[in-house]
Specification:
This protein is an alpha/beta fold. It folds into two domains: 268 residues, Ribonuclease Z/Hydroxyacylglutathione hydrolase-like (Metallo-beta-lactamase, Chain A, 4-Layer Sandwich); 174 residues, Rossmann fold, CATH 3.40.50.10890. 31% of the residues lie in helices and 20% in strands. The chain is built from 14 helices and 22 strands. The strands form four sheets. Strands 6-5-4-3-2-1-22 form a seven-stranded mixed sheet. A hairpin with a 2-residue loop joins strand 17 and strand 18. It is globular, with a radius of gyration of 21 Å. The relative contact order is 0.15.
Length: 452
């Protein structure tokens, strides 16, 4: 048995892990590379394996850095099952279709404005090609062992977002656990990750392997930021991932307003995708903490904006108001148009609500840059820029250690993925010294590791 890390090795994007046994070849996650251009260009590289030779694809959750390359895989000839949890089967088509749509839009805009070096810029895949993935999605129950003819699969809840799960794959050669992205024990919406099942090898995320999250309650932190912005009569812009972060922001805002901690102002959820995702929380209530009525109440705090015309009208308004829109790392989406409209005004504020991968506009702003390039234009950013790590859906260093340490049996080895080198190395050192487990931070370049 061996595993090849074809992405998310030395970086937090492009999760693609190829597990090979004596009889099976399974791809665990199939994500997009995002962030730095050198990473994004890897999405255009030829696949290092034959899609026809895969027996299955297994998804841990729906985020694009774990699913966003599926349309390319299918376009290249993969026709087998794509296993996932039930919420992921509902979420993935929404995210993938939106991804294809945005890529088509970006290609058209680049051609119109002439800022691409290609005469005819092409999207990585289209919205129609993204839809070709949906028939292959095969939902599986959580907690039940499924026989794949020589390989068994079992999901356990991982927290993080709706439907996220760790996956245990077992053959007569051993048991491999892929953690997927692990959530937080005290997340306001999503239950904590389940303890890891016994495994011979653990492939584990390390996004926040070198950091601890703030202990301040998200409601208290948002109250401070919101009051400060509203006092200036400003607009609070909140770039948020459509799955998880947007819903959490709605819940926190509803708590702030209902407690009277800050004056109630108009809130706009300007993301058709986030609106569609929000409705899924009512359908999959076993995967989150809220009751049906609590969901309905929290998510009614905002006015939902679907059309492009309504979105444009928001840019003609002035504060005080809150706008929640994608994308969370400022890599695209409607938030860019709002930044172009409101960021030059110092009365306004931009609240970054989670991890900002290196090379993204969000990371640039956190590093102190005063201009961002949007659709070929340099936009001055005079608005207050604030990071809100208290809303992260990723486990921090201590929480990662606690999760791994709760296993009833020590694994033979731990492989760390989905982290920048510094984060992975910090977690590696602590696992070795505190838990005594052999551990290796996976290297970039598709290296194959023999599991023995």
């Amino acid at each position: 048995m061996n595993v090849s890390f074809l992405g998310a090795a030395g970086t937090v994007t492009g999760s693609r892990h190829l597990l090979t046994t004596g009889t099976k070849r399974v791809l665990v996650d199939c994500g997009l590379f995002q962030g730095l251009k050198t990473l994004r260009l890897r999405n255009r590289e030829a696949l290092p394996f034959d899609p026809h030779g895969l027996d299955a694809v297994v998804l841990t959750h729906a985020h694009l850095d774990h699913t966003g390359f599926l349309p390319v895989l299918v376009k290249e000839g993969y026709t087998g099952p794509i296993f996932c949890t039930a919420p992921t089967a509902d979420l993935a088509p929404i995210l993938l279709s939106d991804s294809g749509h945005l890529q088509e839009e970006d290609a058209r805009w680049a051609k119109k404005k002439g800022f691409s070096r290609h005469k005819e810029p092409q999207p990585l895949y289209t919205e129609e090609e993204a839809r070709d993935v949906t028939p292959l999605l095969t939902p599986l129950p959580v907690g039940e062992t499924v026989d794949l003819d020589g390989l068994t699969l079992r999901y356990s809840l991982a927290g993080h977002i709706l439907g996220a799960a760790s996956v245990l794959l077992e053959s007569d050669e051993g048991r491999v656990l892929f953690s997927g992205d692990l959530g937080r024990p005290a997340d306001l919406l999503i239950p904590p990750p389940e303890p890891p099942p016994e495994a011979d090898w653990v492939v584990m995320e390390s996004t926040y392997g070198d950091r601890e999250h703030p202990t301040i309650h998200p409601v208290d932190l948002l109250t401070v930021i919101l009051r400060r912005t509203l006092k200036r009569g400003g607009v609070l812009m909140v770039p948020a991932f459509s799955v998880g972060r947007a819903q959490l922001m709605l819940y926190v805002l509803s708590e702030v307003f209902s407690s009277g901690s800050a004056p109630r102002v108009p809130v706009y959820l300007n993301s058709p995708m986030a609106i569609d995702v929000t409705k899924l929380y009512l359908r999959h209530d076993r995967f989150h903490r809220l009751s049906h009525d609590e969901c309905a109440s929290a998510f009614s705090v905002a006015e939902y904006v679907r059309s492009v015309e309504e979105s444009k009208k928001l840019n003609q308004r002035r504060g005080p108001m809150v706008i929640i829109a994608g994308a969370g790392m400022l890599t695209g989406g409607r938030i860019l148009h709002h930044i172009a409209a409101f960021a030059p005004d110092a009365r306004n504020a931009l609240l970054l609500t989670g991890y900002q991968a290196e090379g993204t506009r969000g990371a640039d702003l956190l590093a102190g840059k005063t201009h961002v390039k949007i659709h070929g234009r340099s936009i001055p950013v005079r608005a207050e820029v604030t990071a809100f790590d208290g809303l992260s859906a990723h486990a921090d260093h201590s929480e990662l250690m606690d999760w791994l340490g709760s296993s009833q049996r020590a694994p033979r080895r731990v492989y760390l993925v989905h982290g920048e080198p510094r984060a992975s190395d910090a977690l590696r050192r602590d696992i070795e010294t505190r838990l005594g487990y052999p551990v290796h931070a996976a290297l970039d370049g598709g290296r194959t590791y023999v599991l023995d």
